[in-house]
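Quick one:
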Amino acid sequence: MKELKFNTNIKCMGCVSSVKPVLDRESKIINWEVDLESPNKVLTIKSNELNPQEVSELVKRAGYFANEIKEEIHNEKE
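Output:
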């Protein structure tokens, strides 16, 4: 399973509620969460099939942005 991380402008629970229907409908997403305590409001997506561009497009559809955080952590095996 891949874990993708993104900086976002999803700032509060109201924002999360706006994004929730879009991300929940995507069957390729195994799990997702937004760390509202993080200064960059990090969105973590767990998926075997989605690429970062697809995630960014999904979040954009909900009216927000998601910029991938590129780290070596993405290459770790679980």
